[in-house]
Amino acid sequence: MSAQVKLSVNGLPVEVPAGASVAAAVAQVTMQFRRSVSDTRRAPLCGMGVCFECRVQVDGVAHVRACMTAVTEGMQVTTDA
Amino acid sequence: MPDRYDVLVAGAGPAGLAAAQTAAAHGARVGLIDAQPRPGGQVWRHDVRREAPRAAREAFGKLRDVDVLASHSVVAVESSGLRVETPQGGRLISYGSLILATGARELLLPFSGWTLPGVTGAGGLQALAKQGWPVAGKRVVIAGSGPLLLAAADTLRKHGARVLGIYEQAPAAVVHAFARQLRHWPARAVQAIGLRLRLAGVPYRLGSFVRRAHGGDGVQRVDIETPTGTQALDCDLLAVGYGLVPNTELAQLLGCAMDYLGPHPHVSVDRLLRTSVGGVYAAGEAGGIGGLAVARLEGAMAGHVATGHSVAAHALLPQRDRERRFGALLSRHFALDPRLHALAEDSTLICRCEDVTLGELGGFTNARAAKLATRCGMGACQGRICGTALAELGRFPRDGARPPIFPARLATLAGLTTLPSDDAYRGS
Ligand SMILES: Cc1cc2nc3c(=O)[nH]c(=O)nc-3n(C[C@H](O)[C@H](O)[C@H](O)COP(=O)(O)OP(=O)(O)OC[C@H]3O[C@@H](n4cnc5c(N)ncnc54)[C@H](O)[C@@H]3O)c2cc1C
Ligand code: FES
Questions:
Q1: How many CB atoms lie within 10 A of CB B422?
Q2: Range of B93's domain?
Q3: Which of A74, B33, B191, B305 is the most exposed place for a label (fewest CB within 10 A)?
Q4: Domains of chain A, start order
Q5: What is this structure's pTM?
Q6: What is the pLDDT of residues B101-126, one digit of tens each?
Q7: Which among A21, A33, A51, A77 is the best mutation to test ligand 2's pocket, defined by most ligand atoms within 8 Å of the CB?
Q8: Environment class of residue B317 by beta-carbon count within 10 Å: exposed (0-12), middle (13-18) or buried (19+)?
């Protein structure tokens, strides 16, 4: 029903519906969003901006909450995993 | 856009939307702030695949005279207004009256395996799925407590998930007693029956809870305690939520008095939703978990009161009191089984930001001492997850809110005079 948005996650092309979150785009490529301080793999927990487990790099900006950020065309997302 | 509003509303869920629209209808200049990229809050969160419910569409349609400030996070309080972070940088926004409609988050309790990718909150997975998270064809176990489990299951199925079962911790006798009470609430009964019909075929097991999750790179299997023994279930996703807790950090920073229901605070308000701080009102879940109907009614009331129309607010009180009674009924029946407080083992991580285990927190009796010695609660979530969990487990109450209430860029905070000296801002 909605238009698709093209972006890249860890260098791989991804397509998601307009209005989707960066978290949804990342999940198509990997379930490892960040590494914790003791080097364990983490992925979104709360889905609503509270836990900060979904942090990724978006267009060069670090520590962006993937669940709180909408995708835009051509966005470059990098995870820490 | 001006940086001063007659009425500033923090939170654009159903409560904040009603507050903003009501205040604007009285002719006030209204700003409506939300950290999310779109208004709607939790229940009216944008769904990439489905049209918003009619009530939500109507609420969004009435914002013509309101400045909607999306992707605006309130991070601190200053004498002249709220310090707000936006993708474009920091802003200071001042107000005549302030309506706190900051809603609630899920109560998430630690258990072995809860840090595995694929383990989320129940409303959490619902929120992720609405925003396009891939759940189609995935085997999902839903567990925890309260009607949100059913709402989450419904949304997930509409997005193509295979819901293997819903595991409610409240015992069967109590859930059935609750169901019998629904005869006094016909509209709720109709909703509940509709939901159960849509979920026909999905097992709904009472008196059951997830003890452990197993997996390598992600969750693969869960152990579930049921009244008839332990059951192991293979799954791709595990969604566990134990109800809701109000978001009170901003209110606490403003100095608003709190009331407590068990270990978790909510904003204390009088009959007209006035907090203990002059010119500051609270509506919806921030003032105690009450659900969608309470949020809408209180939002409208706060919009009236903040613009000097107390009579109109009074007229809504009986309806609002009735809806609050339903909220109380829910929290009474879905009270948590004490066994859930013993789920975390010594090796279970409690603080997911700083990787602190329950064992490491052994000797501490207050949040501050634990934080200084172990860094528990010092990470990016600022104790929203671990501090709330530890309070629920009966360990110690959460430390009071301190600025910034969300991590913010140094540039945003540059003008801030109230940064605490002992935990300097950390970007991660
Ligand atoms: C994950 C989740 C899923 C839910 N799903 C359902 C459901 O399916 N059906 C149902 O009936 N109920 C659901 N609920 C219950 C829900 O709390 C209420 O139905 C209703 O959304 C409450 O409305 P509200 O306006 O009080 O708060 P909310 O809807 O929670 O809105 C509060 C808003 O305030 C914003 N906010 C908070 N702090 C700040 C800040 N510092 N700066 C900027 N913005 C801020 C948040 O981003 C949020 O958008 C859910 C709750 C949660 C937590
Ligand atoms: S999933 Fe919790 S902040 Fe994004």
A1: 9
A2: 4-104+245-331
A3: A74
A4: 4-78 (3.10.20.30)
A5: 0.96
A6: 999 999 999 999 999 999 999 999 99
A7: A51
A8: middle
